[in-house]
Amino acid sequence: MTYRTIRQRLLLGAGSTVIMSLLLAAAANSQASAIQYDPSQRSASDSRNASASDHPTASHVHFWEELMLEPQDAWSKLRDSFQWREQSLSAKAQARVDEWIDHYRSSPENIAEITGRASPWLAWITQQISDRNLPGELALIPFVESSFDPNARSHRGAAGLWQFMPGTGDALGLVRNGHYDGRLDVVTSTNAALDYLEMQADQWYEGDLQLSLAAYNAGAGTVNKAKQRAENQGLQGSYWDLNLPQETMQYLPKLLAIAKIIDDPERYNVSLPDIHTEPAFAKVKLEHSVTLSEASKLLRIDKSALAELNPGLLNGALNPSSSQTLLVPEDVDHDVLAELSNGANERQAIASANTPDTYRVESGDSLSVIASRYNLSAQELMRLNEIERPEALQAGQLLTLSGR
pTM of this prediction? Predict the structure, then answer.
């Protein structure tokens, strides 16, 4: 029995017990109320208190409130994290959003297809955004960027769920070589995208994430110039004041439009797939090479299921010099996972013993190259050295390689 099955049965059992208790309590209250409600059984004092006894008691109201619980799925959790639904937009700005609402709702089958592709990723992405206390609407950026296709590639060279260009991915430490492309790795690229949005918001826009979204699409230089022009004209300089490239002008309206539809799908005649609140995958740290074919045989699952969860592995194999994390379906047996990881601890200890404490940057180095050389992630290397702008790495700079 899997962890999820055990948890669901426990919750179901607990929920059934609570509901049965409530039903019994309600039945007792209903019986008492029925006796009080019978005029033939009333005393003089009962008649004087009729106005109180003829109305639902607090127990009745509480009972029905307990039963009318919100269904717990990934969509309801996402809706709970929305922060922009109450923002007040000008009539002109609202018209831009409404235009995209009409566009999306005209093809509900497209929404169903795209949200279906989101099924493996939505719960995990929503959790990452919630952990950072960011607006939940950001979880829908992949809807706009890639239609939730981790393998999506644009004609301009952008790739992955978050559509990183090669240069931007390199600057953020997303490893890219013949074995692996971090832009296609959903876990790695999601963390990089959220880091990037927060970093630009703090660096340029005093925390304004909507301006950071525009910069995510068009580049900070383009947005900063447009913002300056708007302010010179006496405008506030918010996203809605800016004159930007057409694609960027539509970027936030698209995001707000699909968030509006997700917030109330019945209103827009849209069906959403059932997605559980827990992530659909587990992360396995490996320090040894393994092919997806080998892993699928050991885990007794289809190779295609592993390939779907690990699009960053370009040649169907995990090479620890590029990536150490393999994603597997969440319900894989833990004993089998331990067998897959066998030997990883010993290899990790050897690697750790051979890793120096510091490294001096040489000409031509990048964070991703240095990180992979010493079996670190680029994000970990940035954290250890408090690096905010990976592109600012300079020859001669001394980097810390461990927390020792």
Answer: 0.69
Structure token pair of residue 240: 């809605």
Q: Specify the pLDDT at position 404.
A: 54
Which one-letter DSSP state was computed for residue 70? P
Q: Which conformational region is residue 343 in: left (phi greater than 0), alpha (psi within -120 to 50 degrees), or beta?
A: left
So what's the pLDDT on residue 381?
A: 82
DSSP assigned state of 359: E
Q: Provide the β-strand partners of residue 329.
A: 281
Is 66 strand, coil or helix? helix
Active site includes 386?
Answer: no
Catalytic residue among 65, 109, 145, 247: 145
Count of CA atoms in the C-beta half-sphere (13 A) of 8: 11
Structure confidence at residue 50 (pLDDT): 46
Token pair 């067998």 is found at 339
- Copy the structure tokens of residue 346: 């010993």
Q: What angle do CA 61, 64, 69 make, to 5 degrees?
A: 130
Distance between CA atoms of 380 and 285, rounded to whole angstroms? Answer: 15
Dihedral over alpha carbons 270, 272, 277, 278 (to 10 degrees): -150
| Residue 196 three-state SS | helix
What is the C-alpha separation between 36 and 32, in angstroms, rounded? Answer: 6
Average confidence (pLDDT) per 10 residues, the chain, 404 residues: 38 42 42 40 45 50 49 89 94 97 95 96 97 98 98 96 96 93 97 97 97 97 98 97 98 98 96 93 90 91 94 93 91 80 48 67 79 73 82 84 68
Count of other CB atoms within 10 angstroms of residue 78: 25
- Total count of residues recorded for the chain: 404
Contacts of 195 (CB under 8 A, 6+ apart): 172, 379
Place of tokens 């090669």: 166
Q: What are phi and psi of 327, to 5 degrees?
A: -90, 135
pLDDT of residue 56: 53
